[in-house]
């Protein structure tokens, strides 16, 4: 499926990385397990695997009606120490337990995995608990530093975004001094009439007849944003980048509505050896006078990730015959004129 840039839609002035995905940050892997079975199962799991050592990280709660486990320890320690998994709301526990059981041999018997969720119950039999440990293992085995498969895959399989079929999306930006910032979203939020693309009110122009979703509340849903950078950022700086993810969500028309569970996590690979037991560890940091370029990269990459999720997703029928319709590419381009 074409991505935003394939359709001539360029967001912001910064260039993207080679893949225009979070995997442009060296050492970051992404894998999916997609579950489409019968009439009712439309779900899965996506995993993002950082380099296998503690990394500085920070996080942000935009609206708290959801879950991203392990955030309190990230806030307290400033470290990410596990993969990040994304799934449906009622599978968080199963995925968390599976990540613990799949920790590499020889590690200490302690783990606090980071697992995020959004609700796919419109298309998926969410109370059937279809995500199982073997699906988590398969996603980990599939994780690779390649182009990220987007749309109705993995944790995004049953998700809806701005009234259209949503799911997984990714993008990256290279800041002016050469550092890379990558974003990955699980987009299941927003409402059609507020959808914006590059500032244009395309949702208003497409008309409500495009997205008949009976039984859903306007603006119901959630989004999880994962950010990665190869820059030497400290935990407080990672938190500041995570906070700017909200601006990328807002650019596309997201509000962080009352019923939404919107969280952002940012980790940085530029300082290594943080597991050392030496009394002192030498660190580097980006000077805060240069941080604005990273903010710009985050906002643009998050906006494009959401759009890529919409463009890659195809119309899907699931539980109880419910259908979520894909964003029509031709109508989108007409609405942008």
Description:
With 337 residues, the chain is of the alpha+beta class. It has a single domain, classed as 4-Layer Sandwich (L-amino peptidase D-ALA esterase/amidase), CATH 3.60.70. It has 7 helices and 14 strands. The strands form 4 sheets. It has a 6-stranded mixed beta sheet. It has a 4-stranded mixed beta sheet with strand order 1-2-5-6. A two-stranded antiparallel sheet has the order 7-8. Helix 5 crosses helix 6. The longest helix is centred in the C-terminal third of the chain and has 21 residues. 54% of the residues are buried.
Topology overview:
Elements (H helix, E strand, L loop, with lengths): L28 E9 L3 E9 L5 E10 L6 H7 L1 E2 L3 E5 L3 H10 L12 E5 L14 H10 L17 E2 L2 E2 L1 E8 L5 E9 L13 H5 L15 E8 L5 H17 L9 E8 L23 H21 L3 E2 L5 E2 L4 H8 L1
Parallel strand pairs: 5-6, 11-12
Antiparallel strand pairs: 1-2, 2-5, 3-4, 3-12, 7-8, 9-10, 10-11, 13-14
Helix pairs in contact: 2-3, 5-6
Q: CATH topology, which one?
A: L-amino peptidase D-ALA esterase/amidase
Number of helices: 7
Nearest-integer average pLDDT: 95
The appropriate CATH architecture is 4-Layer Sandwich
Unreliable runs = none
* Strand arrangement, major sheet: 4-3-12-11-10-9
Work out the number of β strands: 14
Q: CATH first level: which class?
A: Alpha Beta
- N-to-C series of helices and strands: EEEHEEHEHEEEEHEHEHEEH
Helix content: 10-25%
Shape: globular
């Amino acid at each position: 499926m074409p991505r935003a840039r394939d359709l001539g839609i360029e967001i912001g002035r910064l260039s993207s990385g080679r893949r225009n995905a979070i995997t442009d940050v060296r050492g970051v892997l992404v894998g999916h397990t997609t579950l489409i079975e019968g009439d009712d199962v439309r779900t899965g799991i996506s995993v993002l695997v950082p380099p296998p050592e503690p990394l500085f990280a920070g996080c942000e709660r935009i609206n708290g009606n959801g879950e991203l486990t392990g955030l309190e320890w990230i806030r307290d320690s400033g470290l990410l120490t596990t993969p990040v998994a994304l799934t449906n709301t009622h599978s968080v526990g199963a995925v968390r337990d599976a990540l613990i059981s799949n920790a590499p041999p020889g590690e200490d018997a302690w783990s606090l995995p980071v697992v995020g969720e959004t609700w796919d119950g419109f298309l998926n039999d969410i109370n059937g608990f279809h995500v199982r440990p073997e699906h988590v293992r398969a996603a980990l085995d599939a994780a690779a530093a390649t182009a990220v498969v987007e749309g109705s895959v993995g944790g995004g399989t049953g998700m809806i975004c701005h009234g259209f079929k949503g799911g997984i999306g990714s993008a990256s930006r290279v800041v002016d001094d050469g550092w890379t910032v990558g974003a990955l979203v699980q987009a299941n939020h927003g409402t059609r009439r507020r959808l914006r693309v590059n500032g244009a009110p395309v949702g208003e122009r497409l008309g409500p007849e495009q997205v008949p979703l009976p039984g859903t509340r306007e603006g119901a849903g959630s989004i999880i944003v994962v950010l990665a950078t190869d820059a030497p950022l400290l935990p407080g700086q990672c938190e500041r980048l995570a906070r700017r993810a909200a601006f990328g969500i807002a650019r596309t028309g997201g509000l962080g509505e009352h019923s939404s569970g919107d969280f952002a996590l940012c980790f940085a690979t530029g300082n290594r050896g943080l597991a050392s037991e030496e009394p002192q560890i030498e660190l580097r940091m980006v000077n805060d006078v240069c941080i604005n370029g990273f903010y710009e990269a985050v906002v643009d990459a998050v906006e494009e990730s959401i759009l890529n999720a919409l463009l890659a997703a195809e119309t899907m029928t699931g539980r109880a015959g419910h259908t979520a319709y894909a964003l029509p590419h031709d109508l989108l381009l007409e609405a942008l004129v």
